[in-house]
Structure formats: C-alpha cells, structure tokens
C-alpha cells in the first residue's frame, strides 16, 4: 500500500522537474522578482505548486546561464528589505517554452487521454 510519505517523495520529485516550465510561464506574463514568480506559480496552480525562494532564485540563476532568462531592473520591495532584481524571459526562453508546450502539453487535450483518465479524477 502506498504511504503518504512515499507519495510525497514521488510528488515532490515530479513537481521539482516542472519548475522550469512554471518559471518561464510566469516570466512570459511579464518581468518578475523571485517573490513575484513564486506568487504567480502558487496562484496559477491554485496552491498545488509551491517552491521556496532559495529554490526559485537558484533556478533563475541557472536559467540565466543557459540564456533562458535575464536579470534586469530592480523592483521596489516597498520597505520589506533591499530592492529585488526583476527577471525576464529571453527570446531563447520563449522559444523553449513554446516548443515545450507544443510538444508536451497538447497531449493533455487529446480525447484518448481524457477517456483514459475517466474515473481517476
């Protein structure tokens, strides 16, 4: 029998693999700080995907090295500490997001998958 702990380990691994998709989607919506990226992801997923600020920050730095995002202007944190960098999606990042969506998300709209999931959700 699947335990809650086993499921949480599997689900955590699954969700962490999706961070790049959710981050690029957030930045496609406009330039955002780390906190704004986190809030966007949490809102668009109805709270099902939550990542720590350190995880998002480290990921954004990695994505910047790959040329998918760039750090730009500073965002006023309204008295909650120093100003934060706003990140933006690059042309390469947008191309990556579009190609990923075309290749991997279209499958979720197929009638065959809907039929296969009937009764599971």
Folded structure, characterized:
This protein has a two-stranded antiparallel sheet with strand order 1-2. The radius of gyration is 17 Å and the shape is globular. The longest helix is centred in the C-terminal third of the chain and has 15 residues. The chain has a single domain, classed as Winged helix-like DNA-binding domain superfamily/Winged helix DNA-binding domain (Arc Repressor Mutant, subunit A), CATH 1.10.10.10. It has six helices and two strands. The model has no long low-confidence stretch (mean pLDDT 90). By secondary structure, the chain is mainly alpha-helical.
Work out the strand percent: 5-15%
For the record, what CATH class applies?
Mainly Alpha
Lateral strand order in the biggest sheet: 1-2
**Alpha carbon gap, first and last residue:** 20 Å
Give the number of DSSP strands. 2
Mean pLDDT: 90
Radius of gyration: 17 Å
Q: Summarize the helix and strand pattern as letters.
A: HHHHEEHH
Shape: globular
- Identify the quaternary structure here: single chain
Overall SS class:
mainly alpha
Indicate the CATH topology.
Answer: Arc Repressor Mutant, subunit A
- Note the main sheet: 2 strands, antiparallel
Helix content: 55-70%
How many H/I helices?
A: 6
CATH architecture designation: Orthogonal Bundle
* Count of the domains: 1
- Can you say what the CATH homologous superfamily is? Winged helix-like DNA-binding domain superfamily/Winged helix DNA-binding domain
- pLDDT < 50 runs, ≥5 residues: none
InterPro entries: Tscrpt_reg_PadR_N (IPR005149), WH-like_DNA-bd_sf (IPR036388), WH_DNA-bd_sf (IPR036390)
Organism: Candidatus Dojkabacteria bacterium
Domain Transcription regulator PadR N-terminal: 26-97
Pfam family, one: PadR
């Amino acid at each position: 029998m699947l335990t809650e702990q086993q499921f949480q380990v599997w689900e955590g691994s699954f969700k962490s693999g999706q961070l790049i998709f959710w981050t690029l989607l957030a930045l496609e919506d406009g330039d955002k700080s780390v906190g704004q990226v986190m809030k966007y992801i949490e809102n668009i997923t109805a709270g099902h995907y939550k990542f720590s600020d350190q995880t998002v920050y480290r990921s954004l730095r990695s994505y910047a090295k790959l040329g998918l995002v760039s750090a730009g202007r500073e965002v006023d944190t309204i008295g909650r500490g120093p100003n934060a960098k706003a990140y933006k999606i690059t042309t390469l990042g947008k191309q990556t997001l579009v190609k990923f969506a075309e290749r991997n998300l279209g499958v979720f709209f197929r009638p065959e998958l809907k039929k296969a999931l009937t009764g599971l959700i």
